[in-house]
Every structure is written in structure tokens, then in C-alpha cells.
Design brief:
With 149 residues, the chain is mainly alpha-helical. It has one domain.
Length: 149
């Protein structure tokens, strides 16, 4: 690989990193209300509920069962958010793999100058499409967690 190609690839890599940071920032921004709901509203309810479980007249097993029941809403919400985000990440990764495959095929065909531009364009499109899905994902999560606007 000559120096020009290496420099070009380095620049492309930096642009791609910025695009990925863009999608991460968008996800964090749009999911912040849901994270706040889980981390504060549901956690607070859990601790209040768990506090009420400690009664001297209850057995240790009774207390443990009570506390465990209190944790169900928080755990359910955390699992739901994690599952939805894993699906989101998986879709983005698949989309980016298609871009990478196109880039590798173009390199094999030695269409080098266009390959990098095409890769950047493909990644940009994948990132923008992923960002567009975030409001729908957030809406589904809010509905599932009964979060009012």
C-alpha cells in the first residue's frame, strides 16, 4: 500500500469513527428519558417497596420473596431496554457489514478511489437510517414501560 492510499484510508477511518460516534450520541440523547425512568422512578419504587418488606414478624424467606417481587418491574424494564438496544445494534452492525463487503469487493477489483467514497457514503446512509429508527424504538419502549410524555 502506498503512502497516499494509507493516508486516504486513515482519513476514511476517522470519518467513519465520527459517524459511529454520531449514532451513539443520538441513541444516548433519545434514550435518556427512558434511562432516567428506569434508573430513578423504577429504582426509587423498588427501594420503597423493598423497605416495606422488612418486618420483624416476617420470616427471612418471606422478606426475601417480598424484596424479589419488588425488583421485578426494574429488572423487566432493564431487560426490555437491553433487548431493544441489542436489536438496534445488531441491525446497524449488519448494515455496516454490507458496506464493508462492498468496500472489500471494490478493493479486489482495484477501483480504489471510488471504493473509499462509496464506503463513506454507505456508512453515512446506514447511520442516518439507524438514527431515523430511534424515535420509533423510543416510542415502543415508552409504551411498553407506560411512560407518559
Amino acid at each position: 500500500m502506498d503512502h497516499l492510499a494509507a493516508a486516504e484510508e486513515h482519513i476514511a477511518t476517522e470519518r467513519l469513527k465520527r459517524k459511529l460516534n454520531e449514532v451513539n450520541a443520538a441513541a444516548q440523547s433519545q434514550l435518556s428519558g427512558i434511562q432516567d425512568h428506569v434508573n430513578f422512578t423504577l429504582q426509587q419504587a423498588y427501594f420503597k417497596c423493598a423497605y416495606e418488606c422488612f418486618d420483624r414478624s416476617s420470616s427471612q424467606e418471606g422478606i426475601n420473596n417480598c424484596v424479589e417481587n419488588c425488583s421485578v418491574p426494574v429488572l423487566r424494564a432493564q431487560n426490555l431496554v437491553e433487548t431493544e438496544m441489542a436489536k438496534f445494534q445488531e441491525r446497524l452492525n449488519r448494515s455496516l457489514m454490507v458496506c464493508q463487503d462492498k468496500f472489500e469487493a471494490a478493493k479486489l477489483q482495484q477501483v480504489r478511489s471510488d471504493a473509499t467514497k462509496d464506503l463513506e457514503s454507505c456508512v453515512d446512509q446506514s447511520v442516518q437510517e439507524s438514527i431515523k429508527t430511534l424515535p420509533h424504538l423510543v416510542g415502543r419502549l415508552k409504551a411498553s414501560l407506560s411512560i407518559r410524555e
